[in-house]
Design a protein that fits this description.
Layout lengths: L4 H25 L3 H24 L3 H33 L7 H21 L3 H15 L5 H27 L5 H23 L7 H29 L5 H20 L7
Length: about 270
């Protein structure tokens, strides 16, 4: 027998909350690249489950929890980008002159973001709000008619996520903004599909989608790095010649990744 969708979502939320809390505690101890990546992954999972909870619930707790987790994601995203940029630039430093000022700037930025994240990740109210949402989901009325309507509402969200991902990829082009929108929409779809499966729904082809997401993620990393280098060059932190050399070096990598993207879906 298929589990009541509100109860299934409560189970998903509870396991997500525990993983999120564990990852937060690990990051507060030490903000390594691997731990930040894991925390962002758990935050994205939790964000989607809260988004779906908003479809079934109408209350302050679920909205506030969703907003707080989303804020954590934005902050951690900047930190993760900086960590990845430092790792890549360290591997290139020996081949390009004038990299030291850029590396020092990124180290300072990483440390500032890490300190800010440690403070934000205390967030005791988030855990309380998440538990409140779980209780509300478990307390929802159970009947065949109500269940049918709930599944129909969730189904519309799942279908909209798929349509949005396909449309974003079709319109993406090769520029930074379009590919970023396609990446975000595809990531959301993959996470939605995971929840859909737990509710007994059929998910899309995940292997192809995850490969596409990986490539889009690597392109995003290069785009963010190039934008950061350009900004540092405009602020005279790094010499224009160094920024130009990095651009020439990274451009072929981006072109190769673009060529490796799967064909656009119909």
């Amino acid at each position: 027998m298929t589990m009541n969708c509100a109860l299934a979502l409560a189970h998903e939320l509870r396991s997500g909350r525990r993983r999120y809390r564990s990852a937060r505690m690990a990051c507060r101890e030490r903000m390594t690249t691997g731990r930040v990546h894991k925390l962002r992954k758990q935050a994205r999972h939790l964000q989607v489950r809260l988004e779906l909870s908003c479809v079934l619930l109408d209350g302050a707790a679920v909205r506030q929890a969703f907003q707080k987790v989303t804020a954590h994601l934005h902050l951690l995203g900047h930190l993760r980008d900086t960590q990845v940029q430092l790792k890549r630039l360290h591997s290139l430093a020996s081949g390009i002159q004038g990299m030291d000022p850029l590396l020092e700037n990124l180290k300072d930025r990483r440390n500032r973001l890490a300190n800010a994240a440690i403070e934000h990740l205390k967030a005791p109210k988030v855990d309380r709000r998440l538990r409140a949402v779980e209780r509300q989901l478990r307390a929802m009325r159970k009947s065949a008619t109500v269940e049918h309507h709930r599944r129909a509402r969730l189904g519309r969200v799942f279908r909209a996520a798929r349509q949005r991902a396909v449309a974003a990829r079709r319109r993406a082009g090769t520029g930074r903004a379009g590919l970023h929108r396609a990446r975000i929409a595809l990531k959301r779809l993959i996470l939605m599909d995971e929840v859909a499966q737990s509710l007994g729904r059929t998910a899309g082809p995940r292997k192809r989608a995850k490969r596409e997401l990986q490539i889009l993620g690597e392109i995003h990393d290069l785009d963010v790095l190039l934008a950061r280098v350009d900004k540092c060059a405009r602020r005279k932190i790094v010499a224009a010649e160094t920024a130009e050399a990095l651009g020439w070096l990274l451009a072929p990598l981006r072109a190769e990744l673009l060529a490796g993207l799967p064909p656009k879906r119909a």
